[in-house]
Amino acid sequence: MDNRTFILKGNFCYTPSADTLVTRENSYLICEDGISRGIFPEIPEKYKDLPLMDCRDQVIIPGLVDLHLHAPQFAFRSVGMDMELLEWLEQVAFPQEARYQDPEYARTAYSIFAQAMKKSPTTRASMFATLHPETTILLMELMEETGLKTYVGKVNMDRNSPDYLREKTPLEAEKDTRNWVENTLHKYRNVRPILTPRFTPSCTDDLMKRLSQIQKDYQLPLQSHLSENLGEIEWVKELCPNTRFYGEAYAQFDLFGLDCPTIMAHCVHSSPEEIALMKENGVYVAHCPQSNTNLASGIAPVRKYLDAGLSVGLGSDIAGGYSECLFRAMAEAIQVSKLRWRLVDDSLQPLNLTEVFYMATKGGGSFFGKTGSFEEGYELDAVILNDSTLPTPLSFPLKERLERLVYMGDDRNVSGKFVSGTQIF
Ligand code: GUN
Ligand code: FE
Q1: Hey, where are the domains in the chain?
Q2: What is the distance in A from the centroid of ligand 2 to the CA of 233?
Q3: Long-range contacts for 239-246 (Cβ within 8 Å, ≥24 apart)?
Q4: CA 223 to ligand 2 center in whole angstroms
Q5: Centre of ligand 1 from the C-alpha of residue 165, in Å
Q6: Which class in CATH covers the domain with range 64-368?
Q7: Could you read off the pLDDT of 266-284 as tens digits, one per residue?
């Protein structure tokens, strides 16, 4: 029996589907070799000798999954927020990302980031680094140490970017990317490389073709941005006159789902054709409400995506979003959906607590396999939450305790964390 076999006792919440919230008070979760064997009101006879961790009156939820963030942007989160996307990239994000050429700066900045991620309620994440291979590997090493399960991408960008932050030729970009993949593909327990063309405006067709070949050679997943901002979408139309919609700019290189597991961040302004292709190809939507607000991109019609049967997860989009705490993304996903319903389109009902909890756990978690739920057979990622620091004279049922944590909680409420059955703290 290894130390990934144990019992957790406490108050459990999880969502087997987007419309079902399960709450189990004062119960026992069995974890065997890192896999959930389910939640029981009493310890089943065959497990009665397992070590028990008594979390007392605390709330226990599946680890949260951040499907989209930029690690190098953590250093300047919440600064320079009064711009829209394209200006913000030029004025703020690109100059800051250029600093990651310097390994010393990168170590300092990425160490702060990795510690924040470790303390947060997140157990899995898919993140962008910068185009620099050396410091991308440094980030991967620091993330490996946290114990979180992450995808990390060396960014590709070879056009429409400043000289100081641009891959010089598609051939050099391909060489760097291949070397980085070779170096990191089987190196870590917890970290995997993910192909990361920044977005269509940053990548020439020649580079995209080379990335497509790398994707096929190594069977890599891919992450990028899609239909985030109206100016960006117009720009893509000019750059890719042969395509009918933005998604096709990736699909024409086989970089849009199907055999290439794909996360597309934002999808604020996706057309019906684009939504249909995402559905057909199994492309994941990373909904990033805080970023959509800060960069004034718009409000993604998430209800439409859920109704269409798309896979939808949540992202912090650090530093379009300022908070790495996914509770903020959950609460704000609900809030912006209410404004959208009231002000934009009353045919799409607002999101509710159960739906955003699902997106933050099993919805995004499925990109990583069987994760994000306490159902039997799922990898056990669990976050133990102490809500006694949010005092009230009232005594709430478990669903309302979860709701209070989603709106008011942060990493100070996280008293323990397990990833795939391994205790992180
Ligand atoms: N599109 C291309 N690059 C970025 C980025 O760094 N952040 C956001 N929000 N969108 C992007
Ligand atoms: Fe982003």
Answers
A1: 6-62+373-423, 64-368
A2: 15
A3: 239/200, 239/201, 240/200, 244/273, 245/270, 245/271, 245/273, 245/274, 245/277, 246/200, 246/270, 246/274
A4: 10
A5: 14
A6: alpha beta
A7: 999 999 999 999 999 999 9
Among candidate residues 93, 185, 99, the one with its CA nearest the CA of residue 137: 185
Which class is 6-62+373-423 in CATH?
mainly beta
- Nearest ligand to the CA atom of 90: 1
Lookup: tokens for 47: 């497990």
* pLDDT (tens digit per residue) in 195-204: 999 999 999 9
pLDDT digits (tens, 9 = 90+) for 342-401: 999 999 999 999 999 999 999 999 999 999 999 999 999 999 999 999 999 999 999 999
Strands 122-128 and 262-266 come out as unpaired
The set of residues, in sequence order, having a beta carbon less than 8 Å from that of 238 and lying 6+ positions away, is none
Closest approach atom of ligand 1 to CA 73: 6
Please check whether residue 57 is in contact with residue 63, taking contact to mean a CB–CB distance below 8 angstroms. Answer: no
CA of 424 to the centre of ligand 2 (A): 27
Which residues line ligand 1 at a C-beta cut-off of 6 Å?
70, 85, 89, 93, 198-199, 225, 228, 291, 317, 320
Task: Name the residue of 73, 225, 266, 297 to mutate for ligand 1: max ligand atoms within 8 A of Cβ.
Answer: 225
Cα separation, 224 vs 153, whole angstroms = 10
Nearest Cα to 88, choosing from 231, 300, 301? 231
The per-residue DSSP string of 355-368 comes to HHHHIIIIIHHGGG
2 pLDDT band (50/70/90 cuts)? low
Q: Which residue puts its alpha carbon closest to atom 11 of ligand 1?
A: 225
Q: Are 265 and 292 in contact (CB under 8 A)?
A: no
